[in-house]
Amino acid sequence: MRFSVVILDLNGTLVDTLDDLTDALNDHLRSLGRPALSVGQVAEWPGENLRGLLKAALLATGPVPTDLEISAQLQQFRDRYEARLGHQARLFPGIAEALEALVQGGAKLAILTNKPQAASHRLVQQMGIDRWFLFLLAGDGDVPRKPDPAGAEELMRRCGGDRTTTLLVGSSRIDRNTARNAGIRCALIDHDGSKAAHGMGADYVLDGIAGLPLLVFGPPSGGFAI
Fold this sequence. Notes:
This protein is α/β, with parallel strands linked by helices. It has 2 domains: 5-16 and 89-217, Rossmann fold, CATH 3.40.50.1000; 18-84, DNA polymerase, domain 1. The chain has 9 helices and 8 strands. It has helices spanning 18-31, 39-42, 50-61, 67-84, 95-104, 117-126, 150-158, 173-182, 212-217; strands spanning 5-8, 15-16, 90-91, 108-112, 135-137, 166-170, 185-189, 204-206. Helix 1 (18-31) packs across helix 4 (67-84) and helix 3 (50-61) crosses helix 4 (67-84). The radius of gyration is 17 Å and the shape is globular. It starts with a strand and ends in a 9-residue tail after the last helix. The model is unreliable at 222-226 (pLDDT under 50).
């Protein structure tokens, strides 16, 4: 086994929540009299926490907001996000099969997300993948958000891994930077065939989740696509 601990991002890596997120942002923007965003625009902000997403949406649709304005609107946007989350969300193809293979092979799995704790737990349960994970750390808990390495380091400790036996799996540059800051290997998943992940400097790039068990249990070297 190459990696005994696998830490996975949630939104955009395990679950496709882009439509729900876009709807929540547009609900909020409409309440402010601002224009709606396309799914493609929202897709340009992967890995952001809710505050970062709100700021990006406001910057894209009108006058530059102050930090005070963002803070004042954050709870309203959080409420809209939590109300929308799960309506159109779906697992990316092959996720359940890959997670089952990892656990059956002896890997310990955890989730590290910048999204809110309660909503993330609910989403994991709704998608039926909670049984494969030992821990979930989210963006509104006591641990600093990605790309700070503290969350990855805490999950690594809880799962009994070290820097040589832990793999972080994500889909954005934030995930890559988190792994780099923690001193662990990173695999990015290219779900849509855009090849964007290939230019982010990850140790591994997977063209879909199906190659993850091979990476975890096999002997590949870094810097290639599976």
